């Protein structure tokens, strides 16, 4: 080949800014409906305005922000219908992943589940920041999905992960949900490690359904600016 196939050492600035903003949105550092002022984002990130604009366009394509002519760019608020759809699909996918895990997971992947549960329990009982609890949950799910050994399932779930993580952060903000969620995770983990596929599948589905009911109690969940 006459052209090099080498990649650059660092991602473009716009991608770095997009990652920073994406994480801030997922962790609710930027609240649903909040106006993102380009000048402020430039100051926060040290990036140029063109790079910030490109990053915001990328996040708009992902459905995390939306632009209103003459008013600016806002963190997109999840609609009740969208949340319902996400939880409906997520319940089935996570239930399937739980059942497959009991059939296919290696001992190393089972140990990752144990470690993630210990991390999640410590973070929840210490009442640490939501970001720490979300990180522990993410570690649990990574172990679960890897242990399912189904690449197509993993790719399908990954396309939902940013939206799911944002919804997770919203439900954890509801009083009492973090501890209830911990109990559900511990039960799922117990069934995974016991190798009880059907019961693990049911518990995983029920956990997502409980999260969906909690999400439905968060109001208002409407499209911002409407």
Explain what you see.
- By secondary structure, this protein is mainly α.
- It folds into 2 domains: 13-75, Orthogonal Bundle (Arc Repressor Mutant, subunit A), CATH 1.10.10; 80-216, GntR ligand-binding domain-like (Four Helix Bundle (Hemerythrin (Met), subunit A)).
- It has helices at residues 13-26, 38-45, 49-61, 80-104, 107-125, 130-148, 151-158, 161-172, 177-194, 197-216, and strands at residues 35-36, 65-68, 72-75.
- Strands 1-3-2 form a 3-stranded antiparallel β-sheet.
- Strand 2 (65-68) and strand 3 form a beta hairpin.
- The termini are far apart.
What's this entry about, in short?
This protein has 10 helices and 3 strands; from the N terminus they run αβααββααααααα.
**Number of structural units classed as domains:** 2
Global Rg: 19 Å
Shape: elongated
* SSE pattern, N- to C-terminal: HEHHEEHHHHHHH
The CATH homologous superfamily of the largest domain: GntR ligand-binding domain-like
What's the number of extended β-strand segments? 3
CATH class of the largest domain: Mainly Alpha
Q: Give the distance, in angstroms, between the N- and C-terminal Cα atoms.
A: 53 Å
Question: Mean pLDDT across all residues, rounded?
Answer: 89
What is the name of the CATH topology of the largest domain?
Four Helix Bundle (Hemerythrin (Met), subunit A)
Helical coverage, percent range? 55-70%
Major sheet details: 3 strands, antiparallel
